[in-house]
Every structure is written in structure tokens, then in C-alpha cells.
Amino acid sequence: MISSNEYGSHSWELLVTVDHQHEEVQKEFLLQVTGDLHIGGLMLKLVEQIKISQDWSDYAFWWEQKKCWLLKTHWTLDKCGVQADAKLFFTTQHKMLRLRLPNMKTVKLKVSFSSVVFRAVSDICKILNIRRSEELSLMKQSEGTLKKKKKKDKNSKEPATEDILNLCNSPVSAGLSGSPGLYSKTMTPTYDPISGTPASSTITWFSDSPLTEQNCSILAFSHPNCSPETLAEMYQPRTLADKAKLNAGWLDSSRSLMEQGILEDDQLLLRFKYYTFFDLNPKYDAVRINQIYEQARWAILLEEIDCTEEEMLIFAALQALSKLSLSSEAQDFTCESEADEVEAALSNLEVTLEGGNSNNILEDITDIPKLADNLRLVRPRKLSLKAIKPYWFVFKDTSISYFKNQESAQGEPIEKLNLKGCEAVPDVNVAAKKFGIKLLIPVADGMNEVYLRCENENQYAQWMAACILASKGKTMADSSYHPEVHKILSFLKMKNWTMSPQTVSDPESTDMKPECFISPRYTKKYKSKQLVARILEAHQNVSQMTLVEAKLRFIQAWQSLPEFGLSYYIVRFKGSKKDDLLGVSYNRLIRIDIATGDPITTWRFSNMKQWNVNWEIRQVAIEFDQNVSIAFTCLSADCKIIHEYIGGYIFLSTRSKDQNETLDEDLFHKLTGGQE
């Protein structure tokens, strides 16, 4: 019998399980410890007992019952709260993970299971050569998709072997510290002028990226579309409530993968979570642009976002461009001229963030332009036809006033509409020469609906751009007004196609499956030949584009859709007896009627004073200017997800091009973490 003096009266036994691959060596060890032993000392004691000569530097203690890592090696067992009943697991911090990328390719790589998800995603993006990792995050597949997959697996006799890109040998993947992955803005990049993919000399700008030229091509190129059968299997008609379920799977960015129940070799989705694609540059972002394009493409094909038939044909034509241009002779482009074209397209594409610095402050102060023209006003009336009347409209600052005619414009207006915080929705059919703007203007008891009808494309583009800026509290003097007008006109131009008989006379001669480019809802309406003819017809307006420009145009057109950037959640507002839908966007929150899909109220982040979460009742409370406050509980997901979305968008609005690529991670966690 051993006397208590021999071990000391305060010592006790601690069971530790070691995760190693040596079958002949035991895995469970009983260590005699004291409460003042620090974690580093416990590691040393354990490794001495294991007696296996190997590199243990990536190992750490995982506390199974508490679901947490013990990473602070200077903390004592007492400080960590570890007692004799604790079961510690000594395991590697970097483990294998399968990631499904936006282009539906699966990559296998080693990821830190002990770092918070925000940092793990940053490491993953270095491996994949994607800048601006803060725009992405990891999510679990939605339950509906998994159930559908299980049902399909039961029916199929042979298991499908998936083509997985293995990137496990990367320095970051192996747990080694890599370089920060920055590129030099003084470099002259060389890249393929047709695809926009960096040449081999520029692939290694992220010097710790393991991407070979072949792997980079897999991630930066759009590959042949999936078969119509695969698309039909993936597609499911979605109500607004179904769309809300798609956003329930986001992981918590301030906790590690292991803490959220993710196991080694699990599959997660890597997706763009925040729809603010900052500093997008074809010279450096071949992989990033392609993955954004693919996420947009699948969202449209699977009808996760709604678009009109006319818009669907434009998206189909831009997708078909890669197939048609690859089958025809390669065009001869010079790098210099193409770079200029792409940058011009890019300048239209970049999202102007709230609170961005104006380039011409003096002009903004001294000269605020105004619009004045004849437009038609449409007011929806219940139980009767819409009333359509022509008026003289004047757009000044962020308000629209309308008068009986131009002569009476010096007097008092019939009505003045303040557009701050409004929703401006396109109501356009180019073929039918219909150019309408649907304005949903916030009033005390909800939203006031007003339609404006313009005469032509130019008038529509000017007034629509002014409405979009006014909704954000900006005037036409803002530097983003003219790019916005140009962006709207270029999108209308793509829609305004004319039939070219010599090109589309024989749709059968084109080897194209329209079902690969158009969502199942529209393929059911037309025969295959009709769709091919209509896609080729729409293709006339985009046929001169290069592949990288077509992708940028596709992203730009996606950004023009009314529902772009909205992530839906089912919530119950405080004091309400029914469920509502909450749409979270990069600059606002929208309360939506779950039955009709109509917006009820909009709240802008720019008017937000503070927001917090009552973790006991899982309620998000937000205060806005003018004593407006709201509170709601989230029913379709954890309230932490919405809290993180709001904080994340506010964090992203602080970015500027003057900064380098390093991010203030502490600020991100301060804005998104909450005090749980």
C-alpha cells in the first residue's frame, strides 16, 4: 500500500485517452496529477508515459464532457476546472475535412479543428487561393437535401464514386505556419485573356497554396454543366419558408469545428455568406470570381432566388457562352486591351458599401443634381383597376415630388415621397417596352406601394439609379450614381436582343441541352427546340464577351435581381401572434409577410444604434434612430446566426482599399460574438 505522503495529499488520478495509430501501444493512460499542474506539464507527463517517438506538436487536449479544447498550456488544471471525473482526449488539432465548394466540386484537406471557424476559413481560403476569406463561411447541409440523398442512395444499386480533389499535403493543411498569402499590387500579372485564369508564374502568389496549375484550373474554370437528370434530382420547388431553412446550417464563427460537433472526414459546404464582394479583381481573383459565379448559377438553377423568364434566358445565354465559345475557334485577344475591358466591367460590378468615402466631396456639397420629367404614376387600388395618370415629377435630394404639369412645378406638389429606407424593385419587360419602378415606401403602419412608369431605357436607368441611391440616403451627387446608371443600362441592353436568322436558323445543329442552363420550372413550359432557339437569340448580345467578362456580367445581373443578397429566417416579433419572415441583407433588415411575400417594413443598418441578444430567452433586440426598437425570436435557426449576420455585415462595411489584407479579427468577434 502506498502512503499518502508519497504522492502528496492533493494528488488524484486522471484518465487520458491518446489518439494515435500504433496498434501495439495502449491508448488509455492513468496519470497521477495535482490541481496546480499546468496543461503543458500534463502533456509532458503523458508523452513520457506513451514512449512513442513522434512529433506531438499538433496534439492538444479535448475535454469531451465540456466540449472544449484546453489550449492555454500555462493554465493549471484547477483554473481549467479539470477534476478526477474529467475524460480528456489527446488528439491532433488538424484533421481531415471534406468541403463542397460552390461549383459542387469536393476538396479534401486538413483543417484546424481547434481554431475558431473564422480563422479556419481563412486558412482554407489560403489553400484554395481565394482572397477576402471574411466573405465566406462553413455550413452544414440542410436536412431536406440529406434526406433526399439518403432516399436516392437506397434506390441506387451501385454507390456513386465522387471525384474528390485531394489537397492534404499543403503546408497550411499540415498545420504548419504559412505566409500571410498577400499579393503585391506592384506585380504585373500574366493571365489567360479568355478565361482570366492566372498563368503558372502568378499562381504561386499565395506562396503557401498547394494548388498546382491543374488544380487551380479545376477551381477557376467552369466545367461542363451537370446533366438534366442531376439537376432534376437536386431541384425542389421552394416556398419562402423552405428558403429560410437553407440558411439554418451556418456554423458559429466564434467557436471551433470540434465544439460544434463536426467530426473528422465530415462533409461541410464552403459558401459565400456575405454578399459584399469587395475589391474583386480578375487579375488576382480567378478562383474567387469563378466560385462566386458558380454560387450564383446554382442559386438561379435551383430557384433559391427568383427571376423572370426574360432574365432566366439572359443567365442561360451567359452560361452557354463558355460552351459555344469553346466549340468555336479561340479568339485572338491582347492582354492589355482585355484587361481594360474587364476592369470596366468590374468597376460596374463592385458593390459600393454603406458609409463609403465619396471621391468628390466638394461636388457633393455644392451641386446636387436633380431629375425632372413626365412619368406616369400607378397606385394599386383594392377591388378596382389600377389608376394610371401622367404627372410632372421632380427628383431632388432623396425625395420625389409630383405636380399636375410642368407649369405648376413652382407651387406646392400634389405629394412628396421621401425615399430614405424604401425598397426600389424593377418592374421591367424589355420585349413589351415596359419600364416600371416599384417603390415600397416606409410609413407608420407598414409600406406604401407606388409604381412609376418610364418611357424608355435611358429615363428608366436614370430614375431607377436615383431611387436606389435615395433608398440608402444618398443623392445623385454621390460618385456611385453614374456607374449605377451604366450598370442598369448594360443589363437592359443584354435583355434587348433581336433575332439573327443566320445564327439561329437551325437550333438542331447546336449541341446544346437547354435543360442544363434553365431551371426546371421554365423547362416544363417549352419544348427543347424552342428553348435552344430563345437561348441562341439572347446569346447575340453577349457573344462578343470573353469568358471572364461573361462571368462578371452574370454576377452583375444576379446582383440586379430584387431578392439578391437576402437571407431569410422565420421569426416571431415581440407582441405579434403570427410568424413572419425576416430578410437580412448587407445594408438592411426587411420584415416580410410569410404568406404573400410582401415587404411589411424595412430597417436600415445605417439607422441602427445598438443590437443585443437576451441569451436566456434567445431574443434579438435592436434599437434604431427616432426611438424605433424591435425584438424577435428566431424559429428556423439559432438566434446567434442572425446576430452574427448583422454584426458581420457591419464589420465588412469597415473595410477599405487602403488597408492591406490583414483583418481585425478581434473587432469581428466583438461585433458578432455576443456575450453568451
TrEMBL record:
- List GO molecular-function terms, semicolon-separated: integrin binding
Name the Gene3D superfamilies on file.
Phosphatidylinositol 3-kinase Catalytic Subunit, Chain A, domain 1, Pleckstrin-homology domain (PH domain)/Phosphotyrosine-binding domain (PTB)
Which keywords does UniProt give here?
Cell adhesion
Pfam families linked to this entry: FERM_M (PF00373), Kindlin_2_N (PF18124)
Biological process terms from the Gene Ontology for this record are: cell-matrix adhesion; integrin-mediated signaling pathway
Q: Which GO terms describe its cellular component?
A: focal adhesion
Stored InterPro entries: Band_41_domain, FERM_2, FERM_central, FERM_CS, Kindlin/fermitin, Kindlin_2_N, PH-like_dom_sf, PH_domain
Q: Point out the coiled-coil segments of this chain.
A: none
Every copy of the PH domain together lies at 376-472
Report the PANTHER family cross-referenced here.
FERMITIN 2-RELATED, FERMITIN FAMILY HOMOLOG 1
Family listed:
Belongs to the kindlin family.
Name this polypeptide is given: Fermitin family 1
Tell me the organism: Cuculus canorus
